[in-house]
Design a protein that fits this description.
The protein is 33% helix and 17% strand.
């Protein structure tokens, strides 16, 4: 009995697939791009995901991340796109990868990118509590500390022509980037034979993959959203200085080397100003360099810092 499963992923770049033929050829799962950023939707998502589900494949969808935008709005965009199709056994993925020109990461620290990913995953997990939520990301993102722990990992790495078939991928050493367990390996986007399509190997047998997708005990652990630190919680419109400083440090707007104090001070004000520079929608009206966090800004900072 095989201990792996075969799959592909598609987006608007791929035409409609013969999903029944692909399943008969040994495919077990398929994922389709659903959304990107705060408002963009993939034009072929509905057609792809309907075909995937009709063929009886393990279905999933992914969202291309813009960590320098609002995580809550991006999660809402994805949730709205997939809600008509998601159900038991549906897999959700955050596609966290840098554009070649860096435009979707621009202006963000590693801590802020990790906070974004944590918040997006938590929001989608809350929307689909009985379904798996994972992350698709690269070795460089893992090494940079962009990825929260405890989430299933879909990992892209392309050895080239020596590994561009499922048989070659099964014979290859299982990747372990930064010591992380890989649930699915995307091993090529340009196979030597067949159309240009991303090929993926799941390290679970077909029956085990279906069980895992339905929240069975097999495979990687499900994600548990982080808890607020003791003494820190939502609903505070005038947070204490130390509480605010903790959130600013968790999101990378204040250096961790700064000692928290019972007063705001210039370093706290500068950190709040950096937060507002990145999120101008939370500034007080008419201000360009705001050092007052405000209730809406405070709520947004909490979401970034603690994923709730």
């Amino acid at each position: 009995m095989t201990s792996t499963s075969h799959g592909i992923d598609v987006s608007a770049y791929q035409a409609e697939q013969d999903w029944d033929a692909l399943k008969n050829g040994g495919l077990t799962f398929a994922f389709a791009k659903a959304s990107e950023g705060q408002t963009s939707r993939d034009s072929r998502f509905a057609a792809h995901i309907k075909g995937i589900k009709a063929a009886g494949l393990v279905p999933g969808a992914y969202h291309f991340a813009w960590p320098n935008q609002d995580a809550a709005k991006e999660a809402a965009n994805y949730i709205a796109a997939v809600k008509p199709y998601a159900g038991p056994g549906f897999l959700h993925w955050l596609d966290l990868e840098r554009y070649s020109d860096g435009r979707n990461y621009r202006g963000r620290t590693a801590a802020q990118i990790k906070a974004y990913a944590t918040a997006w995953i938590a929001a989608v997990q809350k929307a689909f509590p009985a379904q798996r939520v994972g992350i698709y990301t690269s070795a460089s993102d893992l090494a940079a500390g962009h990825v929260p722990s405890g989430v299933p990992l879909w990992y892209p790495a392309y050895p080239g022509t020596r590994v561009d078939t499922f048989a070659e991928a099964e014979a290859a050493t299982k990747p372990a980037p930064s010591g992380r367990a890989v649930t699915i390996w995307q091993f090529t986007s340009t196979p030597a034979k067949g159309p240009r399509v991303d090929s993926n190997l799941a390290y679970l047998a077909p029956d085990a993959l279906r069980t895992w997708a339905k929240n069975g005990a097999t495979g990687a652990p499900s994600y548990t959203p982080p808890k607020f630190p003791t003494g820190i919680g939502p609903g505070k419109t005038n947070p204490s200085a130390k509480t605010l400083q903790a959130a600013l440090q968790a999101t990378g707007y204040m250096p961790k080397s700064v000692t928290r104090a019972d007063h705001y001070g210039t370093q706290t004000e500068a950190a709040v100003a950096r937060f507002h520079d990145a999120h101008p929608q939370y500034r007080a009206k008419g201000k360009t360099h705001d050092v007052a966090i405000g209730p809406k800004g405070w709520a947004a900072l909490f979401r970034l810092a603690y994923g709730q």
